[in-house]
Amino acid sequence: MDAVLFDMDGLLVDTEGVWFEVETEVVTRLGGDWGPEHQEQLVGGSWDRTVAYMLELTQADVDPAIVGDWLIDGMESRLSRGVEPMPGALELLRGLGDQGVRTALVTSSLRIIADAVLKAVGREHFEVVVTADDVTCTKPHPEPYLTAAGLLSVDPERCVALEDSPNGVASATAAGCRVVAVPGLLPIAQAPGRVVMPSLLDVDVDFLRGLIR
Fold first, then answer.
1. Which InterPro entries match (predicted)?
2. What's the 3-state SS for 58-102?
3. Which active-site residues does the annotation give?
């Protein structure tokens, strides 16, 4: 196993509830209503898709850049108060570090959001961080995972990606990675090259190495 590649929202940290609060505020500001059925449309998707969906839903005549700023301001404000790692995430990162396994963070969030999360989690856990600002195409396109593997100078087929969303799983699979899925808001089925686990508490370094072997 050359490296382990972590998704961020919903996999590394428990931010889906934070996103829901901020999205609700922004959509209310745009004159619309927001519910779980709307959030499910955006799980693991791109920043541009989120803004476009909100404007389409509300039919508000607001510059997309302004809507994006509202989202960033809301997320930064909440993340500055701290964010909870998902169960088992930090333990797994420490185990990988102890055994010298290289790691990367691969997220569809903007760099400014990732930086805020990493202040709480610890930037030192990741050799490489790939965000929406670093790629042309975000998940489910394979570019984010291919970019992370390229920056690490490793073969994606010898990497394990940890994901919680169908879009993220599709991205990692298309890049050639083995995938461990810990489903969040949306269900994910078992499939060749993919194992579905209930929690990162059930995942350790030996388990990940076994997926490559």
1. HAD-like_sf, HAD-SF_hydro_IA, HAD_2, HAD_sf, PGP-like_dom2
2. HCCCCCHHHHHHHHHHHHHHHHCCCCCECCCHHHHHHHHHHCCCE
3. 7, 9
